[in-house]
Amino acid sequence: CHHVTGECSCPPGWTGHDCKQPCSSGRWGRGCANSCACDGGDGGCDPATGTCSCQPGFTGQHCQ
């Protein structure tokens, strides 16, 4: 928590007043501020790192 405001500083992939909510689908990073850049198969991405989770039949950095 911030020493003056008391606001939580959530780790990447987490959000909310007490950092107990994972990023919503399609979002990742600190404050869930980034959008997933994954293509084919709509497998989404890791909420902490943004690494694409490819569906069967898709491969590559962006599941393209």
Automatic annotation (TrEMBL):
Q: What's in the keyword line of the UniProt record?
A: Disulfide bond, EGF-like domain, Laminin EGF-like domain
Per UniProt, residues of the Laminin EGF-like domain are 36-64
A GO molecular-function annotation: scavenger receptor activity
Q: Pfam families of this UniProt entry?
A: EGF_laminin (PF00053)
Disulfide bond residue pairs: 10-19, 54-63
Q: Does the record bear rRNA-binding in its keywords? A: no
InterPro entries registered for this protein in UniProt: EGF, LE_dom, MEGF10/SREC1/2-like
Q: Where is the EGF-like domain?
A: 1-20
The protein, known as: MEG10 protein
